[in-house]
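Objective 1.3, modelling of assemblies. Example input:
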Amino acid sequence: MNVDEERISLIKLHNFFYLKPSWAWRLINLYEKASEVLKQAPAALFAEAGLPLDEGQRFAKKVSSFDAEKELTQADRMGAKVVFFDDDDYPSLLKEIPDPPILIYIKGKMKPSWPIGIVGTRKPSNYGVRSCVKLIKEISPFNISIVSGLARGIDSVAHESALKFGLQTWAVLGTGIDICYPRENKKLYARMPETGGVLISEFPLGSPPLAYHFPRRNRIISGVSHSVLVIEGGFSSGALITARFALQQGRELLALPGNIDSFQSAGPNSFIKQGAALCSEGLDIISSLPAEAFLEKKSARKEEVQEEKIPSLGGLANRVYEFIAHSQKGLTLDEIMKEFKIGVPEASGVVFELETGGYISNSEGKYSSNSIR
Amino acid sequence: MLSKFLSFGLKGVDGFLVGVEVDVSKGLPTYSIVGLPDAGIKESKDRVVSALRNSGFDLPVKKVTVNLTPAEIKKAGTHYDLPIALGILKSIGKISDVSGRQTTSTAFIGELSLDGKIRPVNGVLPMLLSMKGKQGIESVVVPPENGGEAALSKLNVYMADSLKNVVSFLNGEIELPLARRRREIKDKIFKGDFSEVKGQVAAKRAMEIAAAGFHNLLMIGPPGSGKSMLARRFSTILPPLTDNESIEVTKIYSIAGMGISGIIRHRPFRDPHHTISDAALIGGGTNPKPGEVSLAHCGVLFLDEFAEFSRSALESLREPVESHLVRISRVKENVTYPAKFILIAAMNPCPCGYQGHPLKECVCTPLQVKKYQVKVSGPILDRIDMHVQLSPIKYSQWSADKTEKDSRSIRERVLEALKVQKRRFGGSSYFNAFMNVSEIRKYCRLDLECSKIMETAMDRFGYSARSLDKMLKVARTIADLSSSEEIKKEHLTESMLYRILDKRESSSLIGG
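Predicted structure (tokens):
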């Protein structure tokens, strides 16, 4: 393979320094070229750059044993590209963050668009899921990319809805780009590059899902995005780490308001209190972007964007539906029976109609509305 | 000289006649017991010797041989003490053959203490019941404590409290008191009532259906949602035991040595802890004993914290739930205990219990939750007809002064549904839950509208063919509860409420 020496050197540097890109940058700045860096004696190199000397030994060993060309071939074979900081494909916003990776792995076609980060808990409430879908649907006429982390919960919902409503979506992984984590998102992982999705990772091929990878991954999510929307997340949620990165990196932060007694909304509510933009409709997201974004509106995709489904059922079913749709946390069958003073047989018929009609769904014993309003 | 007395042995819940032969002959003074005795019987040697001496008899310095016939069947238990002691006494001429009673039609049961008193033993009732007039037994001598249960048989039951009294009785010197058939014993009946459980209307309804059709039920809900409370009150809505069932239950309790003094009339309620061993749950041991599943025969087996039971315990439940009996195989014997029970299982939705709780945060990782739930899935879940989800109760429901449905009114409906089932199946204890596939096809026909609903549901929720059959059985019971010949639309849709775990995970928000 004919690749220039500089790129090979960068891959070698990245493979050692991917957790500390700032060190790599210091060395590159010092010697102007990565290939020059590798020509130096390790001890002198580390001393010169003021880096811990004991790392120098490890560096020498690691760099000499690492086969950068193989890494490139492997990436190529799985359809991924290695994108360097100076390449055109390198996300321009990512260049602005304090410690940008010297290279990233990308799989899929990245089209020019306005990236929006959407993050949230792995265990969302029905409200969180519903709102996330609703907001993505509302911004679907615009040239937006939805950036998230391919985790369970809100991340998956964001990717799925983006694909559904015809938006580009970027998944930033906490593993090597050739590894799917969590396993249950295997289908989504496989489907994304083919259907307008892009996988992004700064970790070398084969990197396992280690706990400390994910906060680093989060800085890329906010790093590539114009603004970041927090859907739901408790105080210790990873979504909040991303939100804090967004603030450090000077990104616009939006938060979905929630009930004050809902622990999943504790994070976003506290951000709103601190001054994050309250996001209650799609336009709130668009207005966080430069004015051009608003002007780039596509023609509405009629077949995708359908109006809210209102049950055209009998009187009782409609009233039950309204009752469920207006509840905040979903309703149990008991509550429905009590409200309408009906017995189990009658109630079962009504919820069956509503459920098979796709108006409501049941999770953990509670019925809640499917509608996106 | 040779003598022979009669006693009983037990195999599973069936008794058999045992001949206790004693030969006292000249020779070196030894004492041996043959005829496959277990350790308990071998120990009887020491008890018998002391009991004889302390009752005022001298053991001859001779060779004593005891044989338990039929010699090829294993025997266990301490109740052979009495016939062995009597055999020795007769062999040395302390019991007269001439003036005394016929010993060939009398059987003897009793453990001896060292002072010659007769102590109670386990399993008397099943020993006697399987005898019914067979093999010429007309009367039996039992320890006084066992008199109550023994009187349930058709034999003359004498109660003896000491070895000396039995000897005097046999010599025609005194009379032993006859055990009288007592009226039903006072059961420890659970005093609770369904009206004490606030809210949870849907769960109560599910219990009503489970009781009416003998369906197994799984309750899923966070701590404090009333799962255990409901389960404990379940027996208050069950129909009473039939006479045959009462006898079966009493036999099992007698074998298990659960201190019964008369016939059991209420349906058993067993709630073993989740740390229970497989053998204790299913039955077993070197000398097989009935386990919790058999003690719950004709009643309720309540397994709280279902997912915490060991996997092997849950697996071992499969056979009794499926075939209503437990087979315990040992090298020398096979024992079968009946185990027809309603399984009421309760579990939290996740290890910490608060998944889906409106106020408390669940601290489990998705993987933990999955592992927890997978534990009860598979074969055992396939054998559970109904699952219901309970939500924590709110104060407004708790404080509502509205009177709840009480056990009596629920029980009346259950009894009505029972009559319908009796008419349908003919038998006395055959329930909708026991229907096989051809019976389901026969008795659970769906009209056009219901077939349509079934089709919609299968498309929408991805129910399997197996869950379909279960739904049909439950729908049949719901129809029986409302005295409806046909399964109607509302019966079917209601039955679907009780198959929540079969629903395909519908992330319909996105997929819809």
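Residues 407-425 of chain B form the longest helix (19 residues).
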